[in-house]
Request: fold
Amino acid sequence: MRKSRHLVLVLMVAATTAIFVAPAAAHVSIQPATADANRFQEYTVRVPTEKDVPTTSVRVVFPEGFEALRFRPPAPGWHYELERDAKGRIASVTWSGSTIGREEYELFQFMARSRKPGRYKLEAYQTYNGSEVVGWVNDAEPRPAPQITITATAAPSNSGTDPFAQGQGSKVTASAAADVAPGLIASAGVPLWLGGGALLLAALSLVVAMRASRRARLAD
Reply:
């Protein structure tokens, strides 16, 4: 009897935990939740649907100091639209064009950085079929906003550069090429015939010298 009561109690606790944990797992989230300052980091926005109607769009707002610069092409059917502030900074992104069903979730990715350590709250707005909007904007439950903690780190000198940009220092520009001496450029294209001509001239000189030496000996 005691074992039965204990089993029932365990099942009740497990069921209660599932009730409170399941909604939390359905929140819009962004991973990783921590990153280094002054370094580019790829983030993934995970969007599940927790209603009986599908999700039709997701908008993420980037706070001041959090620089979103590049976006990965989303899954087929989806597209994204950027919104910029008066300074030209990317202030938000909206993914739309397809749907996320009740038993589905979708992933969206972008690359960003922050120069200053701290905690950044990225508000998210999830729109459902029928135009209902759920805002994940609070610091904690209910409907907490995704938060990213940026930690201080000793960054190398080139950590703030775009990791996808080509290294411009190794390129030879037209102006730089014009500064090269024409004689050096010409000599680079004719080493074979120039070397062959020198050998031929040396051989002819040797033959002439040998004949002159022979004539001198005969004259003596």
Notes: The longest strand covers residues 90-100. Residues 6-24, 167-195 have pLDDT under 50 and may be disordered. The helical segments are 2-25, 174-178, 182-188, 191-219.
